[in-house]
Design goal:
The structure holds 2 protein chains of 2 kinds. By secondary structure, chain A is mainly α. Chain A contains 6 helices and no strands. The radius of gyration of chain A is 13 Å and the shape is elongated. The N and C termini of chain A lie far apart (40 Å). Chain B is mostly helical. Helices cover 36% and strands 1% of the residues of chain B. Chain B has 11 helices and 2 strands. Chain B has a two-stranded parallel ribbon with strand order 1-2. Chain B is elongated and about 55 Å long. Classes of the chains: A mainly alpha, B mainly alpha. At the A-B interface, helix 1 and helix 4 of A face helix 2, helix 3 and helix 10 of B.
Chain lengths: 88, 310
């Protein structure tokens, strides 16, 4: 499969991956935001997602952008802004 | 996960049922911005029809939940708060049976048994007046007005008192019931229209077979044993579920389910997607989704070079 070179397409992929992570780990995400352990609790899922993202995106594009990190914030965290936590 | 059409308005906009109007207004704005047409969030996940449905449900949430009287009616409908009682039911004798879960054998209760005056038991779950979509083939004996005759129910294995009729046969409590304190149902001609139309669809579900044909016993699962496709298949069969039924319930394609059970790892999606799929599958099989997904993916990671079956 050809690697993604278009930034918009890479961004879309990153958001789709994060959306999937969010969808299937709702309970874990809520709890980890409340306890400020988000990145520890979701370590495996995020690493898996990032690996997949890296495998699909051209190395140069992956190296100069942070679309996956932005997608974590925009898709997973921002949608949980209503949760009470000291991290906000 | 619930389908979009099955989610309550509160779930759609992700607020609690006790949310204040200001919070609801903010949530509606946020949901409309996040999931609106053309949104990158749903661009690759939802079809145009689903996006349109989501947008309309968000607007419905805004209209209903921000109107106090409409919200109150809606809350009653979905069972968030109990409807205001129009009468005080007399105390129910201690021996009054409580409605059984949906898998209870269906009754041959005539459809001319209304209970417009009293619920069958005070402990019954709150009723919903929304149109009720019943899973295909679930035991239905209530032929509601205008629906025509219901399919004859399979013969129950033992006589069942009408009070034990499954809740789904009459979710609004208007089709049948008993007067507390009486030994049996009192036949009264049905004069009250049934509020919730019952949607009958599809052939009898294999779920009925759970009572009639004993499924294989659940496999012994040693603590810490790796979860393989074979083990998942055995658990599925022990629950009396077929692959098509499981596919329908979980929205996982039949193709993926077969590949998971056959351990065709190369044909499966990337682990980041597969994890969610397996968690969803495990939950439907009443297993610990996290544990099963982790175990299955570890096993897959270790053995993906030498795929066992094709």
């Amino acid at each position: 499969m050809a690697l993604i070179e278009a930034p918009e397409q890479a961004m879309r992929l990153a958001r789709a991956i994060c959306s999937d992570i969010s969808l299937y780990n709702e309970e874990k995400i809520v709890k980890s935001i409340q306890q400020d352990t988000f990145f520890d609790a979701l370590k495996d899922e995020l690493a898996e997602g990032r690996d997949h993202y890296r495998s699909r995106v051209a190395a140069e594009l992956f190296g100069r952008t942070n679309f996956f990190d932005r997608a974590i914030v925009d898709v997973i965290l921002k949608s949980k802004a209503r949760i009470r936590s000291k991290i906000w | 996960m619930k389908r979009l059409s099955d989610q309550t308005l509160y779930e759609i906009i992700e607020v609690s049922v006790e949310a204040a109007p200001e919070e609801i207004a903010r949530a509606c704005d946020r949901a409309a911005a996040t999931y609106g047409p053309g949104s990158l969030v749903t661009y690759t996940l939802a079809s145009a029809e689903e996006s349109a449905l989501l947008a309309s449900r968000i607007e419905e949430a805004r209209a209903v939940l921000l109107d106090p009287s409409a919200r109150s009616r809606y809350d009653e409908r979905i069972g968030v708060r109990p409807p205001a009682p129009s009468f005080t039911p007399p105390p129910v004798p201690a021996h009054t049976p409580v409605p059984e879960p949906r898998h209870e054998a269906p009754t041959a209760t005539p459809t001319t048994w209304p209970a417009p005056l009293a619920p069958s038991a005070p402990s019954a779950e709150p009723v919903a007046a929304e149109p009720l979509h019943v899973s295909p083939g679930l035991p239905l004996v209530a032929a509601a007005e205008g629906l025509g005759p219901a399919e004859p129910p399979p013969a129950p294995s033992a006589p069942v008192a009408p009070q034990t009729a499954p809740r789904q046969t009459d979710p609004v409590g208007a089709g049948q019931g008993t007067l507390p304190g009486l030994a049996g149902p009192v036949p009264i001609p049905l004069t009250v229209p049934v509020a919730a139309p019952l949607v009958l669809q599809g052939p009898p579900s294999p779920i009925l077979l759970e009572k009639e044909v004993a499924p294989p016993p659940p496999p012994a699962i040693p603590e810490g044993a790796p979860w393989s496709g074979e083990l998942l298949r055995r658990v599925r069969e022990s629950r009396g579920l077929t692959i098509p039924l499981l596919a329908e319930r979980t929205r996982i394609t039949r193709h993926h389910l077969e590949n998971i059970e056959q351990d065709r790892w190369k044909a499966l999606p990337a682990p980041v997607y597969l994890r969610g799929i397996i968690m969803s599958l495990a939950r439907e099989l009443r297993l610990d989704g996290q544990k099963v997904a982790r175990s299955y993916l570890e096993r897959m990671g270790a053995g993906s070079d030498a795929e066992p079956k094709q």
